Amino acid sequence: MNPRSWTTQADSRRRRLKRAGEICRGKVVPADAVTALLEAILEPGDRVCLEGDNQKQADFLARCLSRVNPERVHDLHMVQSVIALPEHIELFERGIARQVDFSFSGPVGTRMAQLVAEGKIQIGAIHTYLELFGRYFIDLTPQVALIVAHSADREGNLYTGPNTEDTPTIVEATAFKSGIVIAQVNQIVDKLPRVDIPADWIDYIVEAPTPHFIEPLFTRDPAQIGEIKILMAMMAIKGIYAEYGINRLNHGVGFDAAAIELLLPTYAESLGLKGKICRHWMLNPHPTLIPAIEAGFVQSVYSPGSELGMEAYVSARPDVFFTGSDGSQRTNRGLSHVAGHYACDLFIGSTLQMDLDGNSSTVTLDRITGFGGAPNLGSDARGRRHGQPAWLKAGRQAQERPAAMPRGRKLVVQMVETFREQMQPTFVERLDAWEVMEKTGMDLPPVMVYGDDVSHIVTEEGIANLLLCRTLEERNEAIRGVAGYTPVGQKRSRGMVENLRDRGIIQRPEDLGIDKRLATRDLLAARSIKELVHWSGGLYQPPQRFRNW
C-alpha cells in the first residue's frame, strides 16, 4: 500500500503559488495583473470566498474574477456572506461559478430568483452569518479568499478601518488551511494606524484603482417614517420594552426599528422610561439612534459593522462605542452576532411573509434575498445560562407546566404592516418558501425566523403575545387577530379573538392606553437627516445622496 500523503493541501498551495510566480514576483500585485493572477491560481471547482459584507465589498477583485476566461476557470463554488454586486451575478451568468452558499442577497434578489429558474445557479443553502462562518472551519473552507481592507503596508499587514466586519474570519479559515488570500486595499502606506490582519496570513495585496465600494445600509431617512410606523413604535415601546424592562437588545434594519429609536427621547421619555430601557445595544451605528444617545438613553453600542458618515460621531463618543486608539471601531461580525445571540434579551425585526405558525421568510417566489443575521439574532439562545429580568419574565410566560424546569426566554419580535409593497399581504396561509424549496431542490424551506422562536408580533392592529398561547389554535387565532384585512386576518373568529384580548394575549392600542391621535410625525425626535446632523452637533456627515439641503 502506498503511504498516504498528509500534505496534499500544502502541495496544492505550492503548485498554485508557483504558477502565480510567472505573473508577479513579491507580495504586491499590479492592478492590471490581477485577472491573470486569478487564472493562474484558481482551478475548476475551487471553493472561493469573495468578501462581500453587509456594507464593504471586494468590488475590484470581484470585477477581476468576472473577467477570467471561463474555459480556464469554471464551476467555482462561491461561499460569501452577501451577493450584492452585478459582478457577483456575472460569475454565474458566464459559467465561472456554479454553486453558492450565502447569507444575504438583497439588492440582486430578483435576479437571483431568475438565475435559479434558469438553472444557472445552484444554492447550497441560505445561511445565517454565524452558520456560514462556522462552516468555513468545518466543510466550506475556501481554497482561495478574495478580501478587502482599507490599507496595507509593504509587508502585507492590513488595516481594516471601522468596517472590519467579516475579514478576520475569512482570512483565518483560509490561511490556516493552506489556502491563498488576496487582498485589495485602497492604499499601500509606510505605517498603518493599527494591524488588524498580520502580513503572514496574506499572500498578495493589490492597490485598487478606486476605493472599495461601501453601502450606507443602515441609514434610514426619518422623512420617510409615516404615522402607521409611529403607532407601531408606540405599541412596541409601551407594550413590550416597558413591560419587560428591555435593556439589552438588537434592532433589525428598517424604518420600523428606526421609528422606535426616534421615539425614545420623546414618547419613551414622556413615559418615564429613561434609564429603565434600551441601555445596551448590539447594533450598527444607526444614525437614527443619535437622538437617543444624546438624550442619555444609550450607554453602550457594540457593532457588527460601521456606517458611512458616522465615523466622526463614533470617534467622539468612545464611552458609548467600542473604539481603538486610532478612534475608529474594529467591528467584528462574528463576535457581535455571538453577543446579539447570547447577551441580548430582545431582537426586533421585520419580514416579507409570515404564516399562521409564525414562521417568516424574506424568500419569496420572485425574490431570493436571504436572511443575514436575523436567524441567529431572532432565535432563542438555548445554550444561554445567565439571567436578566426581561429574559426571566419571558421564560415564566412561556412555561406551560408550573413544575417544569425554569428557564428564560429571548423576546423575538416581528414588527410588520399587514400589507407590504404593491398591497401584497404579509400574512399568508403558506409561505412561498415551500415552493422555492421544491424548485431549487433545497433540503428545507428557506425560513428566516421559525415560529417557535417568535414571542410577539406587532402590526398596526395590535400586539400578539405568542408566549401566552397554550394551544396551536390559540396561536393561530392570535396571529389572525393582528393580521388586519389580509385573507388570513379575515378568517379570524371574532369570539375567540375577543377572548384572547380579554386575557392580554392580543392587545389593541386602546388596551395599552395609547391615544392613536398622538401617532404623528411630531413625535419623532428628528424628522429629517438634517435634524439628525443637528442632534449630533455636526459630527454626523451623511453621504451626499441623503442630503437635500
Automatic annotation (TrEMBL):
MF term (GO), any: transferase activity
InterPro entries according to UniProt: MadA, NagB/RpiA_transferase-like
NCBIfam families: mdcA
Name of the protein in its database record: Biotin-independent malonate decarboxylase, alpha subunit
